[in-house]
Structures are given as structure tokens and as C-alpha cells.
Write a structure and sequence with these properties.
Layout: E1 11-15, H1 24-37, E2 44-48, H2 58-67, E3 73-77, E4 98-100, E5 110-112, H3 126-135, E6 140-144
Parallel strand pairs: 1-2, 2-3, 3-6
Antiparallel strand pairs: 4-5
Helix pairs in contact: 1-2, 2-3
Length: about 150
């Protein structure tokens, strides 16, 4: 993340990457948010199914998005859409509070799992998502899977 400070970076696209562990995603995501807050050339930010943005560091991200005025396109895709579709308890490790990340091709990665959610890869309340949206000043925003909303059987 430190390498970003001196780079003229227009696009940052991170996909299917989990830092993992009990605090790895949260802490690394906070550092990334801090770097993005003051990055003046970044125009396009994509975070697809990572553990870098979630309820445990959402305040850092809200501050970053309020401060950064250069981002024009923001795509966030959390893990909320895979909850309920994947059985994760069988891979739960009590010592690290992690489960095998639910990526079909990236099963070696582990992600923090608490109260049947991914606190570093999604939000637990609609209000948090609304507050996040309010902090974003970009012209194009797409947010998917940041909340877990069980599918109805209708």
C-alpha cells in the first residue's frame, strides 16, 4: 500500500483477494482507505470480493471517500451474495476465526467469519450502506453484495 503514495495511479482493481486472518482484512483495508483518501490521481476503484472493506473498517472508508475527490467510478462487490449459498462451518478454524474463502478458484484463502457473516467483506446494517453511499462523491457507483439479504422462497 505504501507504494501508492508516489505513483500516478488512475485505476486500482483488486479482485478475489483476501488478506485473511482475524484482523488482516480489516487492518489492511484501513491502510488502503487511508492511502486512497489522499491519492489525487485515482479515478477508477474496483474492489471485488475482497476482505478490505466491511463493517469493521467502514468508518475509515467513509472518511476516505469524503476526502478523495478524484474517484469518478467506484465498484464494490462484497461477500453478502454468497452467504446462505455456501456451507462454511465445516472449514471454520476457531483459533483464527476464519473460514475458507468462498471463491471457487481461490480456496486457499481464508476470511474472517463471525456471527455467520464476513465482517471484513460486507456490512450488517442497511444504515451503514446508506451512510457509505452518502460519503461517496463519485459520478458512477455500483455496489453489490455488501449486505446479506436472504432470498425469499416466493
Amino acid at each position: 500500500i505504501d507504494w501508492m503514495k508516489d505513483k500516478h495511479l488512475k485505476t486500482l482493481d483488486i479482485r478475489c483477494t483476501c488478506v485473511g486472518g482475524k484482523h488482516g482484512g480489516r487492518d489492511t483495508g484501513s491502510r488502503l482507505a487511508d492511502a486512497i483518501a489522499s491519492h489525487e490521481s485515482l479515478e477508477d476503484l474496483k474492489l471485488y470480493q475482497t476482505d478490505l472493506i466491511g463493517e469493521r473498517n467502514i468508518e475509515d472508508w467513509k472518511k476516505a471517500f469524503k476526502r478523495n475527490q478524484s474517484i469518478k467510478t467506484l465498484d464494490l462487490w462484497g461477500f453478502g451474495d454468497v452467504l446462505g449459498e455456501v456451507s462454511l462451518e465445516s472449514t471454520f478454524d476457531e483459533e483464527s476465526s476464519t473460514v475458507q474463502a468462498p471463491h471457487l478458484d481461490y480456496s486457499r484463502q481464508r476470511i474472517n467469519y463471525s456471527n455467520k457473516t464476513f465482517p471484513d467483506a460486507m456490512l450488517s446494517r442497511k444504515e451503514e450502506l446508506q451512510e457509505l453511499n452518502q460519503s461517496i462523491s463519485t459520478t458512477k457507483v455500483r455496489i453489490y453484495g455488501m449486505l446479506y439479504e436472504p432470498k425469499s422462497d416466493q
